[in-house]
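Researcher: Quick test of sequence recovery. Tokens follow.
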């Protein structure tokens, strides 16, 4: 499916806005035609999480044009495998820092998601110096869904809204073990860290403070 955009910035806005508010995340598979006859293809399951925070499946070389429009500073990579050479070279050339948290993608419920890795990844997300930042695993469903779910708890989202968002991306691949992890994850251990970052880098209890732990989520 093709949608016409006047330029790259408009194309990015079309994808980001649609991915954020629509129930149908099929927008992640649209191709955007820019005024200069170039094509911008977002990674699978791409969407905006919050200002300066994005999520997706594993980006490839076909997505580089679109990634350039995001002006990324950081990538939170949730797989244990080494980053593909071509994408690593792209990140190095664009001075994009890759934070890797090697979380096993096993379907076995006995394989636990490491809480320390999620906590460390959350610290990256709430630090505005790392923005814009892209979170991704292989398909942008399970590991990414767990991290975003825990981030939503930091934002005081109610659990039903957190679960709804996870299921919207995971669809028929929803894992009960992931939902149990999100529900049991204790964000109170993150509050002091979040407050410290807000006061030091966000200029006090402004909009970021309301979103991170003090706002009324969905």
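Model:
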């Amino acid at each position: 499916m093709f949608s016409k955009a006047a330029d790259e910035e408009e194309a990015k806005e079309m994808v980001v806005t649609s991915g954020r508010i629509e129930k149908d995340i099929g927008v992640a598979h649209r191709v955007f035609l820019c005024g200069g006859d170039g094509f911008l293809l977002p990674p699978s399951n791409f969407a905006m999480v919050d200002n300066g925070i994005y999520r997706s499946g594993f980006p490839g070389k076909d997505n580089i044009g679109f990634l350039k429009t995001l002006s990324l500073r950081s990538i939170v990579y949730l797989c244990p495998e080494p980053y593909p050479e071509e994408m690593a070279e792209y990140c190095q050339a664009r001075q994009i820092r890759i934070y890797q948290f090697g979380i096993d993608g096993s379907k076995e419920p006995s394989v636990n998601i490491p809480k320390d890795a999620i906590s460390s990844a959350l610290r990256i997300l709430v630090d505005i110096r790392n923005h814009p930042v892209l979170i991704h695993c292989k398909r942008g469903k399970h590991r990414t869904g767990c991290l975003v779910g825990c981030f939503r708890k930091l934002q005081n989202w109610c659990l039903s809204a957190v679960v709804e968002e996870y299921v919207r991306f995971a669809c028929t691949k929803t894992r009960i073990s992931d939902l149990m992890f999100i529900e049991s994850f204790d964000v109170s251990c993150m509050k002091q860290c979040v407050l410290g970052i807000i006061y030091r880098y966000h200029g006090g209890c402004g909009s970021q403070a309301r979103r991170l732990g003090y706002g009324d989520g969905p």
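The beta strands are 2-4, 31-33, 39-40, 47-50, 53-56, 74-77, 97-100, 133-136.
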